[in-house]
Write a structure and sequence with these properties.
Largest interface: A-B, 31 and 24 residues
Helix content of chain A: 25-40%
Number of helices of chain A: 9
Strand content of chain B: under 5%
Shape of chain A: globular
Largest sheet of chain A: 6 strands, mixed
CATH class of chain B: Mainly Alpha
Order of helices and strands of chain A: EEEHEEHEHHHEHEHEEHH
Number of domains of chain B: 1
Strand content of chain A: 15-25%
Number of strands of chain A: 10
Shape of chain B: elongated
Number of strands of chain B: 0
Number of helices of chain B: 9
Distance between the termini of chain A: 42 Å
Radius of gyration of chain A: 18 Å
Helix content of chain B: over 70%
Largest sheet of chain B: none
Order of helices and strands of chain B: HHHHHHHHH
Structural class of chain B: mainly alpha
Distance between the termini of chain B: 62 Å
Oligomer: heterodimer
CATH superfamily of chain B: MetI-like
Chain lengths: ~240, ~230
């Protein structure tokens, strides 16, 4: 579904991504982990070209999206993205947040979009919030709305950029549950996260990144029980501490 | 007391001089209103160009033009701009109100541009990114997501700018326009009675400014729904 070939990205003198390559198959759930500053988020943001790679190619559903003539806005309609800080539109109500893109892009009439939005809200148990402004919601609710907003575009793949890192601990569960449901429905997902339990139970594959490179790619069982790379071992020993 | 009434009479009643005041008020409102509209349009346009030029090399030339425009307008006095417009650029146009509207509009645009740019930059970049990630193009994301929030942020500054603009139109009399101040001047030059002409002019400005202030407050309240992230 997505083929990433040798992408490089630098910010000034900071070489953030170094020849990163991987392939993500349809329906796969890939979890990207690694220490902060390792390039995980940049990697994710390169996939939908929120950051433009300096070199390399990204092939999405057979099309090279790094080419100049490719209409990235069209491609992004099929790639949902969820951000660490939710990025809900504070001047719009929940339902307006969800229907804005489908309506303004003329993919649906406002009635259709509203219907879709209500169905999605119902499924996530948030239909009573439809006329609230985002500032009235808890962090967990905001992030679930942000996920719903992406889903309203009927994407083929969802990118999650540390979706639970800005949440209070008690809010994390509701967001992870929604993501898990989504995974079980067969959505292709790439998730950057520090939630190791989520990685263990949902991922088909773990990408371990450090210093702008993918150091290890493995299924979660083998990765967590027996990491092969020295840096991965060190990382896991630090985060899976036992008191 | 008799002198007082006599003075009032001379300033407002004789030869129907109140009509001149009314003309002056009307012209001042017309100049300020249309200059404001022109200022908003130019200002937001310039701000968007300058903001977008950061992400696109194609707008390089426009960016330079906008910079020159803002520098020249902010670097020269409005009275001089008014005289230049009247004697050179629009020298073959008789409608002095139009000239005043254009001058004050173009002048205000440069200040609004700076205010609006600060407003656009004050909106978290995640808002634009969220819009883009949903498949909106930059201009749609700007128009539906960033601008409404920017406008809310700059409303107080924008309100002050328009209050300043309204008062600034009092120099319109440097060219033959009967604005409120000039109306007062004309009457005073006939009556030689400064008291009523000057104080009533001042009172008129005060009432207009207070009115604007009230409108500004209402707008700010309307835009403040959904405050804070």
């Amino acid at each position: 579904m997505i083929e990433i070939k040798n992408i490089n990205k630098s910010f000034g003198n900071n070489h953030v991504l170094k020849n990163v390559s991987t392939t993500i198959e349809n329906g796969e759930k890939v979890v990207v982990i690694g220490p902060s500053g390792s390039g995980k988020s940049t990697f994710l943001r390169c996939i939908n070209l929120l950051e433009t790679p300096d070199s390399g190619e990204i092939i999405f559903e057979g099309r090279n999206i790094t080419e100049k003539k490719c209409d990235i806005n069209k491609i992004r309609q099929k790639m949902g993205m969820v951000f660490q800080h939710f990025n809900l539109f504070p001047h719009l109500t929940v339902i307006e947040n969800i229907t804005l893109a489908p309506v303004k892009l003329r993919l649906q009439s406002s009635e259709e979009a509203e219907e879709t939005a209500l169905k999605l809200l119902e499924r996530t148990g948030l239909s009573d919030k439809k006329n609230e402004y985002p500032n009235m919601l808890s962090g967990g609710q905001k992030q679930r709305i942000a996920i719903v907003r992406s889903l309203a575009m009927k994407p083929n793949i969802m990118l999650f950029d540390e979706p639970t890192s800005a949440l209070d601990p008690e809010m994390i569960g509701e967001v992870l549950t929604l993501m898990k449901d989504l995974a079980e429905e067969g959505m292709t997902m790439i998730v950057v996260t520090h939630e190791m339990s989520f990685a263990k139970s949902v991922a088909n594959r773990i990408l371990f990144m450090d210093d702008g490179k993918i150091l290890e790619e493995n299924n979660p069982k083998d990765f967590f029980s027996n990491p092969s790379h020295e840096r991965a071992k060190e990382f896991l020993s630090k985060i899976l501490y036992k008191i | 007391m008799e002198r007082f009434i006599n003075s009032f009479n001379k300033t407002f009643i004789v030869e129907g001089r109140y009509k001149l005041f009314i003309t002056g008020i009307e012209n001042t409102i017309v100049i300020a209103l249309f200059a404001t509209l022109i200022g908003i349009v130019i200002g937001i346009l310039v701000a968007i160009i300058r903001y977008s030029a950061k992400n696109s090399r194609k707008l390089f030339l426009f960016d330079i033009i906008c910079n020159i425009y803002v520098s020249i307008i902010r670097g020269t006095p409005v009275v001089v701009q008014l005289l230049i417009m009247y004697y050179t650029i629009f020298s073959n146009i008789d409608n002095t109100i139009f000239i005043a509207v254009m001058t004050f509009g173009i002048n205000s645009g440069a200040y609004v541009a700076e205010i609006a740019r600060a407003g656009i930059e004050s909106v978290d970049s995640g808002q634009m990114e969220a819009g883009l990630s949903l498949g909106l193009n930059r201009s749609k994301a700007m128009f539906f997501i960033v601008l409404p929030q920017a406008v809310k942020n700059i409303l107080p500054a924008l309100g002050n700018e328009f209050i300043a603009l309204l008062k600034e139109t009092s120099v319109a009399g440097f060219i033959p326009v009967i604005d409120l101040t000039n109306a007062g001047n004309i009457i005073r030059s006939r009556t030689y009675e400064p008291f009523f002409s000057l104080y009533s002019v001042a009172l008129c400005y005060l009432v207009m400014v207070l009115g604007l202030g009230a409108i500004q407050k209402r707008l700010e309240r309307r835009f403040s729904q959904g405050d804070r992230n």
